[in-house]
Write a structure and sequence with these properties.
The chain contains five helices and two strands; from the N terminus they run H-H-E-E-H-H-H. With about 120 residues, it is mainly alpha-helical. It has one domain: Immunoglobulin-like. A two-stranded antiparallel ribbon has the order 1-2. The two termini are about 25 Å apart.
Length: about 120
């Protein structure tokens, strides 16, 4: 089973499968993502390495989010799902407490690029 999972990861190049994923997201920029995270006030609910804030625990801390298997406990932690989640969490999981924050798709790509760098 482990070999199968690894094989799938190798074939698809899924970042979430590796220890330290390199996320192939065309045109995404982690520094712009960091700015977008600041602008949108994500730290009101999340503790995020590299972003000053009140150490909130409304949502999960986003350190090592790349190593999580699922986002919101409902969808696989793939770049495409991360982008979908950031744009409109309730569309991914109607029960989630995370609101849609008015994130555009380019912003979501940049934010995902930043989040996937976090140790
Ligand atoms: C009002 C509070 C709130 C705000 C603001 C908020 N989030 Fe969330 N977020 C949550 C909650 C609660 C969860 C857990 C969702 C769940 O499990 O259903 C979550 C989950 C997440 C997840 C999935 C983490 C995981 O391990 O499953 C990511 C990534 C995320 N948020 C990023 C962001 C980003 C980036 C912003 C800013 C654009 C943001 N959040 C703004 C409350 C918030």
């Amino acid at each position: 089973m482990k070999e199968l999972v690894l094989g799938v990861c190798l074939v698809l190049g899924i970042g979430a499968c590796s220890e330290r994923p390199v996320v192939p997201m065309l045109g995404a920029d982690a520094d712009r993502g960091k700015d977008a995270i600041r602008r949108h006030g994500c730290v009101a609910c999340h503790t995020i390495p590299g972003i000053a804030g009140p150490a909130s625990n409304v949502g999960p801390p986003l350190a090592q989010v790349a190593r999580r298997a699922y986002l919101g406990g409902v969808v696989p932690n793939l770049p495409s799902e991360m982008i979908r989640w950031l744009i409109d969490p309730p569309q991914v999981d109607p029960q989630t407490a995370m609101p849609a924050m008015g994130i555009t798709e380019p912003e979501a790509r940049d934010i995902a690029a930043y989040l996937y760098t976090l140790d």
